[in-house]
Amino acid sequence: MITLEHQLHAVWLCFEIPRASGRLLETGTEEFLTLKRGGTLGKIPVVVVLTKYDMLIDRMERTLDGPTLNGLSDNAIKGLAKNKAEAELQNMCIRSLEEFAGPDIPHATISTKECYKETLACLIRMTENCVRQNFTPEAAVMTSIAQRADPRLNIKASIEVGKRKCWNTLASSAAFKTHTTWDCLHVLHTDIVAVWNFHDPHGYLHSQEFRTMVTNMVNSLDVRPTANPNKTLTVGMATVSAIAGIISALVGPAAPIVVPIAACVVLVVWVHDVYQRSRMVLQRFMAYIIDLTLVLHLVSESREITRRVIKLAVVSYLTSPITDEVHARIQEYDREMTLLDRTDRDVVGKIIEVIEFYSISADTIFELRAKIPVVGSLLDEPWKDEKA
After folding, report:
1. Residue 361's Cα: distance from chain center in Å?
2. Average per-residue pLDDT in the chain?
3. How many helices (H) and strands (E) does the chain have?
């Protein structure tokens, strides 16, 4: 039997959007789509990708009637051009596709220009959904891991992988008995980082220093004042602010990033204890999973994985309202239920709820990126500033 990684999971059939009166499909492509419609190609999904969408929008803007645009904002004019482009696509492309492939053929319009990068995220989400419908959940997870366009898909994949591994035994402690807390967190950390598929040639995200930072962030459950879990910011706004701060810092003066004492590189004592089933231990494990996932969400907005980027993400997370709110939600959950009442499914459900609450969409991330100029390769720095 062919293993999962050697199977073809989806096909992107790419075409440049033609100009007026141009032909979209060649004879060979028409035959291919007809075979797909007839079932000859099996269940492998085919996604039609219409490229250079930005050029179509530009052409539509040039055809807009000048006098009717007076007093309209740039966004309003873009909206008119987009509506006209959609009508043009229907006439030039979609009708031809549906003639040979049927009305259900998935299709996406894309552009690689910076201001249209959200179209790539839409394509990735469409592909992941097609793979999920036609293959095993594992295949859809691998699709999410392979992409870097939409961090929410990485988060979704991380949740799926976590549920199949250690997350489902956090409350019952079945997988952690006889192991130290540090060993258990080491396994959780490795599994979560792997899902994000970062280009991390130096292994900084798997380093002892970064693991220690995340562990000490969790320690704030014990030492920091508890926020009111009912008084949170608008969904995603704290995350947006944190990401904006990171991107701005990366293009600003390269002053060393000083990590607060709460995330210093000296391990807290409790990680050396043998895992025991208790309320505090469960809170710490939940916090580690959520804190690490949300920090990686911030890290994902950098093109390079450096110690400076990681430290910026940690500092931004610690100094934003997110950390206190996340920990408050965990503590509130703990107060509402006794340890005996709590089940593994309840714990996983709460973890997913908090992670999804503080994650933001790819569209919002692309809007943030568009406001920041492109910079060259970033200078790195040590984990610890010797002058600090």
Report:
1. 8
2. 77
3. 16, 3
